[in-house]
């Protein structure tokens, strides 16, 4: 199993960074693209890393935000036999509202159009835990059980801020391997503790070889951060790789306080394990 970060808020020397996320997973002869970044860093990094997008088998959208769906239309044009996995709510109109200013944060129109034009048999609507291929699964919507986690920001369906957006479409991916699970989150608007609890419930597996992805904790309350660290510290995790929207403060506290290796992710980072 090989996982390559193609777009992230940080990048290896020579690669581009942007506020966005995209990861290529290669396992069991399948190539899975998890999110598509926001702007040009994705394309630049794919070229620099020699990634051929034409033979992507599966595209997963972790959720519908613009920083994960920015290059979807282009990728669908190139990867013309791929199947797209997403939750129906990934397509909704949505905003973040700061200082009374609504900012649209839904996916670009080109991406919505590309999905609309895709033959129905090439779309899988993910509304429950779903198998992608051998040993690779999606959570679908994650039950929000903890009291201390929220969607992570001022998110609404309308520009007036009347209807909160719980970002129901948020999903994470896990890969089952002998050494434990690799868990990959996009923004983790469901909360990382909710997500890990849910995956543990489904799989019965407590060992996590690698936990990687955006954990959206930059706006987290001190209480949320404390309780998240408390929960992460008690888990059987071998390696944590905070990416994208995890936030500097959370990532630093993870590094200082968690009893296992923590290394911040960046575009160009490769995580390999097992065979296949
Ligand atoms: Zn994000
Ligand atoms: Zn997001």
UniProtKB/TrEMBL annotation:
<dbReference type="InterPro" id="IPR001279">
    <property type="entry name" value="Metallo-B-lactamas"/>
</dbReference>
<dbReference type="Pfam" id="PF00753">
    <property type="entry name" value="Lactamase_B"/>
</dbReference>
<dbReference type="InterPro" id="IPR052926">
    <property type="entry name" value="Metallo-beta-lactamase_dom"/>
</dbReference>
<dbReference type="GO" id="GO:0016740">
    <property type="term" value="F:transferase activity"/>
</dbReference>
<dbReference type="InterPro" id="IPR036866">
    <property type="entry name" value="RibonucZ/Hydroxyglut_hydro"/>
</dbReference>
<dbReference type="InterPro" id="IPR041712">
    <property type="entry name" value="DHPS-like_MBL-fold"/>
</dbReference>
<protein>
    <submittedName>
        <fullName>MBL fold metallo-hydrolase</fullName>
    </submittedName>
</protein>
<feature type="domain" description="Metallo-beta-lactamase">
    <location>
        <begin position="19"/>
        <end position="244"/>
    </location>
</feature>
